[in-house]
Structures are given as structure tokens and as C-alpha cells.
């Protein structure tokens, strides 16, 4: 099914400029994607309800949605990181198996090198958000279309940057692919399989606790086994 209806662009150069600035205005599917991004960033139940309805509509024309989204994504590639992350999130909710190759490619896009003086949010950090967003979008597509899970394994086998690899391993484990991931990873990376999502109850301190005893695993507080990063003040260019 197609949602596409191209809007008139005419022969005016000014219209072409406006189309480049407003990437969601080129078609009906583009407009729907733009509304989905807007609702995704709208607080409250009303935004959630509208987003759910838009996902239902876009899911009926998922091939159209994919091609339109890819076009918009490429227009802003290397630019608006939040927009690209939002587009991948929407694709994770509306995409079918045809979206798997695109999401795999987005996850495996090489990360740029960190440049001196970039501060806390470097170009590499921003691209890392986009790549991990693609991994989690693959996860949600794979839960609806199990055959897509193989693309998560392809991400792992391509040995992306460590942050991307960790997210892909976590996703694969949640999809029930732990044994296959163990075969793909070198032995020194098997520790990634031990990472799990903590339950909210585990993160709440007990104000009534008085015994002073450690419970469960306690990480080392010092010495050679203490590997937690130290907290330092993030200095911008202003110093």
C-alpha cells in the first residue's frame, strides 16, 4: 500500500530551497513522518495517543515510509542528530523486514574521530547516539519480524565500535540469541553478555537498612580492579 502523493514543486528556485529546508513537506508520507516526530517529542497522554495512531497509519504503507524516511535521513545526514535519531525511532515502530538493511547500515556507519577542543558533546558522541538508535530500532522491528534478528548478529559480526557492539549484544541477548552471540564474540568480550537491564526495584535505596552489610555483588572501591571512570569537570572552549 502506498501513502505517497507528491506535492507540487513547480519550477521556482525558491520552492526548491523551501523543500530542502522543510523535508517533511514533499509528500503525504513525509507529512505523516513529520507529525510522528512531532508527537514523539510531545509530552503527555495526548502526544502518546497521536503517535500511536500515526504509527498505525504509517505501518500500512511501511515500504513508502521507509523510502521517504531514507530520503529525509540522507538530506540531514551529518547534520541534525536529534532529527535522525527520531527518524530511526519511528522506523523501529513502523518498519517491516524491508527496513533491516537500512537500519543495519546506519548502525555500522563508522564513527568519526574525536577532535581536540570539541567539549562534552563531540561529533563522535552525536553519531554514536544515531548508531545506537539504529540498533534499538532493529530490536523493535525484530520483535515483530523475527527474521530481522539475523541483522543484529550481522552488526555484531562486523565488530563496530565498542559502544555500538555492547548495545547490539544486549539486544541480541534479549532476542534469545545469547548462544549465537557467544560464538561470534572473542573470549575477551564474553563479559558483555553478562550486562543486563536492572529492575527499578534494584535501583532504589532502602532507607530502613541498618545492618551495614553488602548485599549481592559489590564492585571494588579501589585498587587495580577499580575501573570506573573518574568524574571531571567538562571544560568548553571558554575554559
In brief:
This protein is mainly α and 239 residues long. Helices cover 52% and strands 0% of the residues. Among the domains are: 18-95, no CATH class; 99-109 and 123-196.
Characteristic terms for this protein:
mainly alpha; 10 helices; 0% strand; 239 residues
Describe this structure in words.
The longest helix has 22 residues, at 123-144. The chain has 239 residues and is mainly alpha-helical. The chain is 52% helix and 0% strand. Residues 5-20 have low confidence and may be disordered. The protein has helices spanning 13-21, 28-40, 45-59, 62-75, 81-94, 100-107, 123-144, 149-157, 162-174, 178-184. It has 10 helices and no strands. The radius of gyration is 22 Å and the shape is globular. The protein starts with 12 loop residues before the first helix and ends in a 55-residue tail after the last helix. Among the domains are: 18-95, no CATH class; 99-109 and 123-196.
Strand count: 0
What share of residues is helical?
Answer: 40-55%
Radius of gyration: 22 Å
Determine the strand fraction and express it as a percent band. under 5%
Q: What is the helix tally?
A: 10
Distance between the termini: 55 Å
- What structural category arises from helix and sheet content? mainly alpha
Instruction: Give the SSE string.
Output: HHHHHHHHHH
Spans of at least 5 consecutive residues whose pLDDT stays below 50 are 5-20
Mean pLDDT: 81
Anisotropy-based shape: globular
Largest sheet report: none
